[in-house]
């Protein structure tokens, strides 16, 4: 209230006061959570207790004000010059923005990302100083006119550049061939996913809801269909997401939640740090035939009760054996042992797959092939997903695989005997493809 009055702001919105959070009837929370994007987008300024560890810590801290000043000293380099006059230098922390802002406790909470990204202005109350973020300026009490160029080039500054309305093109990597401007926003979404999945949620069931405000903003910009954390246009390539670190921020291994949250083909079904992969609609070896998502409410960016994906591609029978290094596996495809060129990234690590191998339940599907003639920006590689057969052509995802070895690429892409007998919804004998469902 003190800060609000000092800023001459009439209205204050606090989620814990304005939303019923702990009642058995979650109708109020469900309704209000779907409107959070409007709250933050239309706010004048978001006041963030960024340095607080607990909700009772408040905004104000006993500050170490001496840390706000750069250390200055005089240096003399007599060997470099005959001139013995000293030169005055300022010593700054090159990780200043990370240490003063990005790595503070609040920014490891999943719900906070949409507050920070959607609000037009954010005033951070940090342990040592006030920090300001908006689309035009990153500033702090130590640098009220903006960060010096050397500091702005280090760490994750210009966080608002994650907003495609502000600075989308900056994210596009050199050599990308897609000329559609909406590609920029899809690339930004991958940055958002990478940032979001490094955060923690008190309730794992909030995974989709805590991101829904940003998804609504993005959907209005790119005019695409949102598919539980991914987008329809590049969905085939987005299936190649993977867990980039099997240790979460609490140092527990990655896992899928006990209670259903999302289909296994979506990264939102896993708790862990996610690398969304590389966007492309070139060299895809599978096609998306159908998508069905059963939403828990009318909000198509929020909670889901079920869903599946039907794809058309080529099934290969797979055996996985644990290698010497924990979390790594040796692959046998269609009865042939594959060398060290084939790598796997499983969504959840397991000690072994003996039971699945015995039941002949494991399969792989190539998703994307080598990009011929474009090795200058993408190495020649073949990649796909690892699946476990459930029943009658229905599969669940276990992870992804990739190889850049020419002989392995050739073997996996070759057709083999008895492929028509593999479990699937339909088999096309002309192009030798399988239609399957992934839940």
| Tally of separate helices | 13
How many strands in all? 21
The global form is: globular
Quaternary assembly: single chain
Largest sheet data: 11 strands, mixed
Work out the strand percent: 25-35%
Whole-number radius of gyration? 25 Å
Question: What portion of residues is helical?
Answer: 10-25%
Distance between the termini: 48 Å
- Model regions low in confidence, pLDDT < 50 over at least 5 residues: 171-179, 373-377
Mean pLDDT: 85
Structural class: alpha+beta
List the helices and strands and how they pair.
Layout: H1 2-6, H2 15-18, H3 27-33, H4 36-41, E1 46-48, E2 71-75, E3 87-91, H5 96-102, H6 112-118, E4 121-125, E5 130-134, E6 138-140, H7 149-152, H8 164-167, H9 182-196, H10 209-222, E7 226-227, E8 230-231, H11 235-238, E9 242-245, E10 273-275, E11 287-295, E12 304-313, E13 316-322, E14 329-333, E15 336-337, E16 343-346, H12 354-358, E17 362-368, E18 382-391, E19 394-403, H13 406-413, E20 426-428, E21 433-438
């Amino acid at each position: 209230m003190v800060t609000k009055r000092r800023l001459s702001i009439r209205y204050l919105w606090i989620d814990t006061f304005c939303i019923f959070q702990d009642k058995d009837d979650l109708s109020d929370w469900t309704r209000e959570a779907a409107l959070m994007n409007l709250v933050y987008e239309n706010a004048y300024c978001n006041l963030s207790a960024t340095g607080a560890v607990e909700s009772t810590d408040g905004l104000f801290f006993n500050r170490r004000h001496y840390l706000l000043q750069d250390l200055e000293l005089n240096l003399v380099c007599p060997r470099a010059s005959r001139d013995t006059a000293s030169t005055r230098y300022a010593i700054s922390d090159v990780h200043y923005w990370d240490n003063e802002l990005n790595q503070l406790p609040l920014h490891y909470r999943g719900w906070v990302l949409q507050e920070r990204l959607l609000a037009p202005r954010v005033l951070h109350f940090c342990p040592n100083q006030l920090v300001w973020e908006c689309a035009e300026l990153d500033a702090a009490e130590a640098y009220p006119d903006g960060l010096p160029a050397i500091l702005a080039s280090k760490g994750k500054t210009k966080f608002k550049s994650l907003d495609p309305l502000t600075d989308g093109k900056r994210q596009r990597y050199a050599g990308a061939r897609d000329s559609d401007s909406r590609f920029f926003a899809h690339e930004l979404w991958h940055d958002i996913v990478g940032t979001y999945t490094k955060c923690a949620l008190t309730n794992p069931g909030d995974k989709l809801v805590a991101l829904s405000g940003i998804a609504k903003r993005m959907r209005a910009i790119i005019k695409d269909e949102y598919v539980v954390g991914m987008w329809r246009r590049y969905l085939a390539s987005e299936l190649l997401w993977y867990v980039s670190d099997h240790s979460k921020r609490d140092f527990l291994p990655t896992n899928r939640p006990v209670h259903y949250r999302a289909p296994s083909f979506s990264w939102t079904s896993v708790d862990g740090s996610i690398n969304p992969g590389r966007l492309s609609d070139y060299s895809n070896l599978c096609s998306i035939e159908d998508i069905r998502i059963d939403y828990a409410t009318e909000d198509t960016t929020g909670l889901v009760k079920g869903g599946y994906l039907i794809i058309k591609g080529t099934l290969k029978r797979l055996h996985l054996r644990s290698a010497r290094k924990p979390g790594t596996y040796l692959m046998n495809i269609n009865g042939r042992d594959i060398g060290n060129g084939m790598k796997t990234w499983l969504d959840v690590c397991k000690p072994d797959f003996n039971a699945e191998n015995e039941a002949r339940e494991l399969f792989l599907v190539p998703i994307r092939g080598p990009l011929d003639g474009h090795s200058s920006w993408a190495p020649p590689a073949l990649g796909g997903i690892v699946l476990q057969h459930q029943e009658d052509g229905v599969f669940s995802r276990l992870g992804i695989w990739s190889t850049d070895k020419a002989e392995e690429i050739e073997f996996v892409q070759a057709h083999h005997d008895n492929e028509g007998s593999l479990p699937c919804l339909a088999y096309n004998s002309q192009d030798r493809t399988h239609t399957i469902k992934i839940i």
